[in-house]
Amino acid sequence: MSSDTRRITVRIPEKMVEELECIVDKSDYANMSEAIRAALESFIDTMNAPEYISQITVKLPKKKVDEIQSLVTEGDSISVDDAIRNAVREYVRGRIKEYRNELTDEC
């Protein structure tokens, strides 16, 4: 751990502690401190996003996450985030095109 860290004390409900311990036991985190740091980094990244960027959190079934991760492994995307951004972008483009075609058909 770097010397430029600072200890803080946070009180959280016992149930949350138990859930966090369970997550740490099932994950690659070495301990609760590491897991909490990761959560705080994610929170800070979200809260400090530039004004022109809106971030959303998406919960996906593990199987779908594994499928997306395989796209990254196969070189189809540079990251899971990139794969999801591309998929959403293409979906929105397709829906806009369909909508425009419907408007054209009505005229």
Derived from helix and strand composition plus strand pairing, the structural class reads mainly alpha
| Count of folded domains | 2
The low-confidence runs, each spanning 5 or more residues with pLDDT under 50, are none
Order of helices and strands: HHHH
Shape designation? elongated
Strand content: under 5%
Gap between N and C termini, in Å? 66 Å
Biggest sheet details: none
Helical fraction: 55-70%
Number of helices: 4
Q: What does the radius of gyration come to?
A: 20 Å
Give the integer mean of the pLDDT values: 89
Protein architecture, described:
There is one protein chain. With 107 residues, the chain is an all-alpha fold. It has 2 domains: 11-54; 58-107. The chain has 4 helices and no strands. It has helices at 14-26, 32-47, 62-73, 80-106. The model has no long low-confidence stretch (mean pLDDT 89).
Annotate the secondary structure layout.
Blueprint: H1 14-26, H2 32-47, H3 62-73, H4 80-106
Concise overview:
The chain has helices at residues 14-26, 32-47, 62-73, 80-106.
Comma- or semicolon-separated keywords:
single chain, 107 residues, mainly alpha, 2 domains, 4 helices
